[in-house]
Amino acid sequence: MLLWSAPSPMTSPEPLRREELLDLLRARWRASYDLQLVQRRGRLYLQVMWGYLEQQSFPLTPEAYEERLEELVASLNGLGVAAQVRQWLQTTADRPRLGKALSLPLELPPGRASEFML
Predict the structure, then answer these.
(1) Phi and psi for 77 in degrees, rounded to 5?
(2) Rounded to 5 degrees, what angle do the CA atoms 73, 101, 79 make?
(3) Please, what CATH class does the domain formed by 18-108 belong to?
């Protein structure tokens, strides 16, 4: 007898979409936090910054924020880490605090790190 199981979120080949990323942020923290890819000491990290779109002092317009997310999603999908990001955003218990971003060290598939980091 064969048992069927849904693919693990860590191995799902489904690309991440901007709308999904925004939904994940809002479901987890009820805010549209700023996200950045940061390279440090040969590693690549996704950082959830403490600033968010709903703040009056947030420096981006909603349109510019969506463009930034679109570019970020394209990078994450190109790096092959969409499932990893999706899983982390669904399960992390931490939250960004003023002056302290959350960091996800990305586990890049072989070959992808050298393509991205010059």
Answers:
(1) -65, -40
(2) 25
(3) alpha beta
Instruction: Report the C-alpha gap between 117 and 100 in whole angstroms.
Output: 24
Which amino acid is residue 15, in one-letter code?
A: P
Q: Give the model confidence (pLDDT) of 53-106 as tens digits.
A: 999 999 999 999 999 999 999 999 999 999 999 999 999 999 999 989 999 999
Domain boundaries, the chain: 18-108
Angle made by CA atoms 30, 35, 40, in degrees to the nearest 5: 140
Question: In this predicted structure, which of 40-49, 85-94, 104-113 has the lowest mean pLDDT?
Answer: 104-113
Spatial distance between the Cα atoms of 92 and 10, rounded to a whole number of angstroms:
14
Which is nearest to 48 in space by CA: 107, 97, 117, 90? 97
